[in-house]
From TrEMBL:
Keywords: Membrane, Transmembrane, Transmembrane helix. It comes from Acetobacter fallax. It comes from the Bacteria. This is Uncharacterized protein. The chain crosses the membrane at residues 40-63, 84-102, 133-149, 161-179, 216-238, 245-263, 295-314, 369-388, 438-456.
Amino acid sequence: MSLPLMGAILFPLCLIFWTKPSRLLEFLLIAGIFPAASALTLGGLAVQPSLVPGLAFLSYIVLQKMLGVRYPGQTDVMRLCAPMIFSTAWAIFGSLAMPRLFHNQVLVWPQKLDAFGARTLLAPSFGNVTQDIYLLLNVALMVYAAQYLTRYQVSIARMYYAFLVAGWMVVVLCVWQFAARTAGVPFPKTFLYSNTGWSVLDSQVAGPVPRINASFSEPAACATYLAGVLFSTVWVTLKGYRVRGVKPLIAASGLCLCLTTSTTGFATVAIGALLLPVMVVATGAARLLGRVGQLAMIAAVLLGVSGLVVATFIPKAVTGAQSVVSGTAEKKDSASYKERSQADADAVSEFVETYGLGVGWGSNRSSSLVPGLLATVGAIGVIGLMMFDWRVIRAAGWALKTMPGCTECLVIEGMLAAVLGRLIAAIVSAPTIGMPDFYVMIAVAIAAVTRIRMAVRTTGQPALRGETAAV
């Protein structure tokens, strides 16, 4: 057993702030940007940093529950989370039943490939157990965090500010790593990549351009997180919320996403750009169309000016950019793309071969989210997740119309936009979304919706007392 530097920082902090659960959640959101690090190493098992404040938070809340403590909005939270809880229960049941029901009848891609890198016959495995544990912890975090954050004594806006701080930290690490790769500036690899159970791809290049992964295991994972930051900051700015540091973060996160040269990141941003007018119309905020046009013009001018400066003073950068563009365009012809596409096709085949029931949570690893969910939790689990998404979106829409402009609305829109960005990236190219901070972000949005419901029931008026989203 060993305690890396990350753990030496997090464990004392969580011990000091154990009686302040909101601070633990803030630490979790920040620690979520260090998935390639380890807070505690036990043989070949490494504990992710975000699990330390997550487990500390759960231990406090469970103790409170045992003592009979109830939170003001926990009934509303449970109603919103009911489909997700059902899907989780089905996933755990499936992880136990399906590998035995379809034992040796279906070929699957295991969670960790063996030396041959081939599909194996379906059978119960340790992957079912470990994935069940991660799923239970994540959903428990989501439910209990949402319940706790319904307390009016808690500043829910701090959760969103912690997310923005985490976004700025990723930006700093991206620039730092870029300086290290190009100018030899020292970079804390040992601190950031201490998780021995993960393969860290921190030396990839796209032509002459280094691919940046910051504190993540690979450039695509970094781009996925930055896509969430970009979606959130752009949407919050378009909606007119005044939050310090958000507008510069738009440019900074967009630049760092380009430094990753990730096809996943570029595709996610392109999809977001196509969805933006649809979201504007769907939310009934037609006045935002003018702001969208203004933002597009500003972005075009900045890109044009910066491109001209770079082409004039750094000619090699033009060659590098051309290499990145050509590499992205030719991605579909690469061996890795064909392997990923085959993994997704195999996942769909598993869904069909098991009559829509799936092979069980943790039994198969796909390349993208939707085929992976179909293959593991089947039609029943996917329908439950869709019901959960629809219930949260509908409740958020009602809350935004009921109390427009309040702090809770800022949190709802900022967090859900970030969740959407990461979700789109996962649909493009990620087998699952298993990071605790993602579930806490959903919890924060649910708690904000519930607080608005409680305010309406208490006062009967569409306004929160003395709260504003302008900071």
